[in-house]
Design brief:
The protein is about 25% helix and about 25% strand. By secondary structure, it is of the alpha+beta class. β10 and β11 form a beta hairpin. The longest helix has 17 residues. Bound molecules: zinc ion (2 copies).
Length: about 375
């Protein structure tokens, strides 16, 4: 790895830059270096990642203070973390990329690519820790022969003669001038004289692609991740659509999830509750031995604080809450029967003296 450049230098801002300046500088770089604008260019992708890492650190007050004091080499170096994949960057800064590539109301030219939706399953444990999953998506990508322009290599789409590149034509209707979509270029403002032979002028090609999706810790079943610009490429160089990844968090039969908390049930006997004991309570990281105080009641809960899931969009973790379920034996040995009666008698309780006897007599017949 080459030596790391100074984050301020990467973004081209003074060390005194405020949040707004940082954001503007990063947006400008991201627009230039966006991989969909520089397909197959590893240098611009590397610079895009570098700029994203710089922005990630400098836009976070704590990380920035740490970087200002210690630079790249300080204790806890590598806090920038870097990004494995441009998809991570889109997920991390979707607010910024949403601004750049979303909306754009009234834009002329080629349409936006379609959004793509896909599903991915994670276990409850993966939902707790976060995980990177590879997903396969079949979608239109920019045609590699013409780089998505639709025009044969060496030629370019030309401005439409009919509408002068406006995409709209005017008709006189009575006293009114009516504007409608140009029938020649279908509103794109450009026409392709010499279509690319690979994609026949469409500019896109269907491809199965493997994408790495970084799933943050704490996601819920049905949460949707938006990966801006990772949907269908638009015909002839328009903005790509978004990829929406809907998460399916598989149920874990040991737990019932309530936000960041996990409820579980632990079976206990009457002596364990009466005398106190140590119990194994399941958590996502394995069983945890937990104390039950003497005199605990059935239905009481043991709370293992911080053993639940991370809270999405907040600090800390939820709890594991174990509900104690009293299990009464359905049959007793003669010895158990005798001791239980002795226990009741010692406490001055009257229990049905016949029941055990009757039962045994009937069984003997
Ligand atoms: Zn092509
Ligand atoms: Zn036209």
């Amino acid at each position: 790895m080459s030596e790391k450049r100074d984050y301020y230098e990467v973004l081209g801002v003074p060390r005194t830059a405020d949040g707004g300046e940082l954001k503007r500088a990063y947006r400008k770089l991201a627009m230039e270096l966006h991989p969909d604008r520089n397909p197959g260019n590893p240098e611009s992708e590397a610079r895009f990642k570098e700029a994203s890492e710089a922005y990630q650190v400098l836009s976070d007050a704590n990380k920035r203070a740490h970087y200002d004091r210690f630079g790249h080499a300080g204790p806890g170096a590598g806090f920038g973390g870097g990004f494995r994949d441009v998809g991570d960057i889109f997920s991390a800064f979707s607010d910024i990329f949403g601004d750049i590539f979303g909306g754009g109301g009234g834009r002329r030219g080629p349409g936006r690519g379609d959004d793509v939706q896909t599903r991915v399953s994670v276990t409850l444990k993966e939902a707790a820790t976060g995980v990177t999953k590879e997903i396969k998506v079949v979608r239109n990508v920019a045609c590699p022969t013409c780089n998505g322009s639709g025009a044969a290599p060496g030629s370019l789409p030309e401005p439409c003669q009919r509408c002068g590149g406006r995409g709209q034509v005017m008709h006189a209707q009575g006293f009114l001038m009516i504007s409608s979509t140009c029938p020649v270029c279908r509103g794109e403002g450009r026409v392709i004289r010499d279509p690319c032979t690979t994609c026949h002028g469409a500019g896109v090609e269907e491809q199965q692609e493997a994408l790495q999706v970084a799933i943050p810790p704490g996601v819920e079943d049905g949460s949707t991740l938006r990966m801006v610009g990772r949907g269908e490429a638009a015909p002839r160089g328009g903005q790509p659509g978004n990829l929406y990844v809907v998460l399916n968090v598989e149920p874990d039969e040991r737990f019932e999830r309530d936000g960041a908390d996990l409820h579980t049930e632990v079976s206990v006997s009457f002596p364990q509750l009466a005398l106190g004991d140590r119990l194994q309570v399941p958590t996502l990281d394995g069983d945890v031995e937990t104390e039950v105080a003497p005199g605990t009641q059935p239905g009481d809960t043991l709370v293992l604080s911080g053993k639940g899931l991370p809270r999405l969009g907040a600090r800390g973790k939820g709890d594991v809450i174990a509900h104690l379920k009293l299990v009464v034996p359905t049959s007793l040995s003669a010895e158990e029967d005798q001791h239980l009666r002795a226990f009741a008698a010692a406490g001055g309780q009257r229990v049905n003296p016949e029941r055990g006897g009757l039962f045994r007599r009937k069984k003997k017949k």
